[in-house]
Amino acid sequence: MEPFRSLLPESVALELAEHIRRFPPVPDGLLFRLTDGRPVTDSAWGSVFRGVARKLGIKATPHDLRHHAASALIAAGCSVKSVQDFLGHATAAETLNTYAHLWPGDEDRIRAAIDSLWAGDRLRTAAG
After folding, report:
1. pTM across the whole model
2. Residue 83 maps to a domain
3. pLDDT tens across 61-113, in order?
4. N or C terminus: which one in the chain shows less Cβ crowding within 10 Å?
5. 4 falls within a domain
């Protein structure tokens, strides 16, 4: 599990270590395969995911997992730059264009900052 510690959250590293224990990689090094032994391709993963979602009565695509991850990171207070890096977006602008509506507003902080500045000005004026 140690090689994954710096790259993955602990919960994911533990699951991955268990998967590797149960299904050791074959000489080509692939960790995940289809039941017939073929590598998992994007289209195969999408097909399996959509099939399971359909059986569960969930209307979702694999790309929805990406949006879910992004919204969870934003809700947890991660910065635009961190979310950009995690998603592999080329720029922070791309991340903001897609997810800006999910970041909380700073209206209370803006009001408090202005009040603080004005209070300081009033104190200086009163002292002057």
Report:
1. 0.69
2. yes
3. 999 999 999 999 999 999 999 999 999 999 999 999 999 999 988 898 899 88
4. C
5. no
Structure tokens at 82: 């961190």
The pair of structure tokens assigned to 9 is: 């959250």
Tens-digit pLDDT profile for residues 35-66: 888 888 999 999 989 999 999 999 999 999 99
Cα distance between residue 94 and residue 45, in whole Å:
25
Residue 74 belongs to a domain: yes
For residue 99 the two structure tokens come to 């997810």
Q: What's the total number of domains in the chain?
A: 1
* Separation in Å, CA 108 to CA 54, 114, 119: 43, 10, 16
Domain ranges, residue 92: 61-128
Cβ atoms < 10 Å from Cβ of 102: 14
